[in-house]
Amino acid sequence: MYNVVNLGAKGDGRTDSTKAFLDAWTAACGSASPATIYISVFRDCNSHAITFRIDATLVAPSDYHVIDDAANWLAFQDVTGVSIIGGVLDGQGTGLWACKRSAKNCPSSASTLGLTKSNNILVRGLTSLNRQMFHIVINGCDNVTLQGVRVSASGQSPNTDGIHMQLSSGVTIMDTQIKTGDDCVSVGPGATNLWIENVACGSGHGIGSLVKDLEEEGVQNVTAKTVTFTRTQNGVRIKSWARPSNGFVKNVVIQHIGMVNVQNPIVIDQNYCPCQENCPGHVSGVKVSDMGYEDIHGTLDSGVAVKFDYSSTNPCSGIKMQDVKLSHRN
Description:
Elements: E1 2-3, H1 18-29, E2 35-38, E3 42-43, E4 50-53, E5 57-59, E6 72-77, E7 82-85, E8 88-90, H2 94-101, E9 111-116, E10 119-124, E11 127-129, E12 136-139, E13 142-147, E14 150-152, E15 163-166, E16 169-179, E17 185-187, E18 192-201, E19 207-211, E20 219-230, E21 234-241, E22 248-262, E23 264-272, E24 287-300, E25 306-309, E26 317-328
Parallel strand pairs: 1-2, 2-4, 3-6, 4-7, 5-8, 6-9, 7-10, 8-11, 9-12, 10-13, 11-14, 12-15, 13-16, 14-16, 15-17, 16-18, 17-19, 18-20, 19-21, 20-22, 21-23, 22-24, 23-25, 24-26
């Protein structure tokens, strides 16, 4: 076991302990047997069995300019067999949220945890708080499991998606609670074989997939079951801009879903244009097919229970609904 405290890290909330974390990573990567880093970009590692165990709260710099040129606060790239267990990651994003709300010229934001081009990753029992932007980003990965994760940020925090994935296959999200100011789970291009189960979502914008570019990989083979949405803007939503695209969404199963005072529980919007400003004014080329909605119950707050706004040239096909019972709250 490699203890970052023994390597010089200090838990005083002021000292920069980056070197101690990197020293622990280097030592673990050189180990011939499975190694544990006891707690912090980690990359290019020979070992395929490293566990990060975090029994503390890691606090990001309160000055958002410190890491404004980084995509992620903590990043793992080109690694295999890494487990991240426990701990709290406090992103201290309130300052940047205030900057964005004031319409000032704010710096770009860093996500809390980035997993890139990596395989066989486990994240279990991790808590992510108050991130500047996305909390967990999975990009170009295979076989990633997130279990018992907790994500929390203000319902008014901009662009604080809980878990975002793209160009990845075999991602599983289970037994997780997400409260953010944006999507609980956002599904980007090239996401395939995604499994979401026993997830509590609220506040936020729900679970959604956005297709926007002319050339992008499709989303397919997605299952979301036993999910509860509480006072979210949306439940499950697919949205695409009204312009040409070779993107697609297909083979999606949504079942055993609870809605508690959700504004728009079920949405397919192929004419997406937030705030109705600078809309492209074309028709969506995105093909949405083979969608199954089953056993969806609950209440909606003030919106429309089911909204299907199809493309005039590429309408959805294979949409099936069974045992869907949604009513306005009393």
